């Protein structure tokens, strides 16, 4: 079962509406797919997503692809996918950083190894604890009335009752009022959280978090830039509302520092940030050991990438803040034959072999750059 080839592809898939973040408005989302084939012709597939080129973080789709093709692939050819843990340990000694690239490669190895054994991937990750997970939605149309209408529709359809608002762009004080209006409108039928995506300075954060806490916001994600761990610690100490580290919480070493400094009291997990599924489990363990709450984060992956995240999240004990694996619902189309199921405010964990998603090669060709 030796690895014969590794291929990577960049795809751009349109979204159902503009999705406005602090640094970028998504109208089509870039994903990187990896296909690893063994000598018997069996394939393992995985996906990783990025947001807004280089504006969200260092992991751009172009860099992910070129680093996989140039520096990672030579270390995979001739190896056995079943040795995914050893392959990734060895790879970390010869390829530094490149968390997104390593994450998608490791996931494709795990998909192949699990398919060879005819098992769901979560069986290779410790086994499933959850059959479904709570599913947040991001209200990010940029318009209060549209956001309220969207929230009402999803409450009615029993699709989401956790709403995250992206409030890093524009006037912070107006944005706080936008949040408070939405909280007043949904009342106690839903939880409302906010994500600032690093956009505030500490003085602005101090002023705005006071108003958000008073108004009933249930969590504040990454209010300050990633470098300002001391500022995050001061906000965490001062306010009762949970403060979550997202962009700051990448490697196990970052997360260890965050827990040690109490620079937040919860962590948004994302396999791409941590460098893979095995690293995600380590990050979750550090957070759990420190008494931090967990959130199952997304970089807005399509069906395949969402199934990858869902697979590892299903093996982690507790998500105080639920998950936000809504990516497929924001895409206009999908690149898998299988679809994910969303029922009663939750995402159902797929149970097929590997990540449970068969790739649609015509769609891959259609959306490929
Ligand atoms: C982020 O920072 O959390 C997740 C949901 C969403 O709307 O954007 C992403 C990125
Ligand atoms: Mg975030």
UniProtKB/TrEMBL annotation:
Segment forming the signal sequence: none
GO MF: chloromuconate cycloisomerase activity; manganese ion binding; muconate cycloisomerase activity; racemase and epimerase activity
Pfam families: MR_MLE_C, MR_MLE_N
Location of the Mandelate racemase/muconate lactonizing enzyme C-terminal domain: 145-242
Cofactor(s) listed: Mn(2+)
SMART domains registered for this protein in UniProt: MR_MLE (SM00922)
Keyword field contains Metal-binding: yes
Keywords: Aromatic hydrocarbons catabolism, Isomerase, Manganese, Metal-binding
InterPro entries referenced in this protein's UniProt entry, alphabetically: Chloromuconate_cycloisomerase (IPR013370), Enolase-like_C_sf (IPR036849), Enolase-like_N (IPR029017), Enolase_C-like (IPR029065), Mandel_Rmase/mucon_lact_enz_CS (IPR018110), Mandelate_racemase_C (IPR013342), Mandelate_racemase_N_dom (IPR013341)
The keyword Nucleotidyltransferase is assigned to this record: no
Pathway this chain belongs to: Aromatic compound metabolism
Listed transmembrane segments: none
GO terms (BP aspect): amino acid catabolic process
PANTHER family in the cross-refs: O-SUCCINYLBENZOATE SYNTHASE (PTHR48073:SF2), O-SUCCINYLBENZOATE SYNTHASE-RELATED (PTHR48073)
Family of the protein in this entry: Belongs to the mandelate racemase/muconate lactonizing enzyme family.
Protein's name in the database: Muconate cycloisomerase
Species this chain originates from: Cytobacillus kochii
């Amino acid at each position: 079962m030796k690895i014969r080839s590794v291929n990577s592809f960049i795809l751009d898939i349109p979204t159902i509406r503009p999705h406005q973040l602090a640094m970028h408005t998504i109208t089509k989302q870039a994903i990187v797919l990896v296909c690893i084939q063994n000598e018997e012709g069996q394939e393992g597939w995985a996906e990783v997503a990025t947001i807004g080129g280089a504006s969200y973080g260092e992991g751009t789709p172009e860099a992910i692809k070129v680093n996989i093709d140039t520096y990672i692939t030579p270390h995979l050819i001739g190896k056995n996918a079943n040795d995914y843990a050893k392959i990734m340990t060895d790879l970390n000694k010869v390829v530094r950083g490149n968390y997104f690239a390593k994450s998608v490669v490791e996931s494709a190895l795990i998909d192949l190894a699990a398919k060879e054994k005819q098992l769901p991937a979560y069986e290779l990750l410790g086994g499933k604890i959850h059959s479904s997970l709570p599913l947040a939605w991001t209200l990010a149309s940029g318009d209060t009335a549209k956001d309220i209408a969207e929230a009402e529709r999803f409450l009615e359809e029993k699709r989401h009752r956790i709403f995250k608002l992206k409030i890093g762009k524009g006037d912070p004080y107006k944005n706080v009022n936008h949040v408070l209006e939405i909280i007043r409108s949904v009342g106690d039928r839903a939880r409302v959280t906010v994500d600032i995506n690093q956009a505030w300075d500490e003085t602005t954060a101090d002023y705005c978090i006071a108003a958000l806490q008073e108004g009933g916001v249930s969590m504040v994600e990454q209010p300050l830039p990633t470098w300002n761990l001391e500022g995050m610690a001061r906000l965490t100490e001062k306010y009762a509302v949970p403060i979550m580290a997202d962009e700051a919480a990448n490697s196990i070493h970052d997360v260890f520092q965050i827990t040690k400094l109490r620079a937040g009291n919860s962590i948004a997990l994302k396999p791409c940030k941590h460098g893979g599924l095995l690293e995600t489990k380590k990050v979750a363990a550090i957070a759990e050991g420190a008494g931090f709450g967990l959130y199952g984060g997304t970089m807005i992956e399509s069906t395949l990438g969402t199934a990858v995240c869902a697979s590892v999240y299903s093996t982690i004990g507790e998500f105080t803040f639920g998950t936000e694996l809504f990516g497929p619902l924001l895409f206009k189309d999908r690149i898998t034959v299988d679809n994910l199921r969303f029922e009663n405010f939750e995402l159902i964990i797929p149970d097929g072999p590997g990540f449970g998603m068969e790739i649609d090669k015509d769609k891959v060709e259609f959306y490929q750059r």
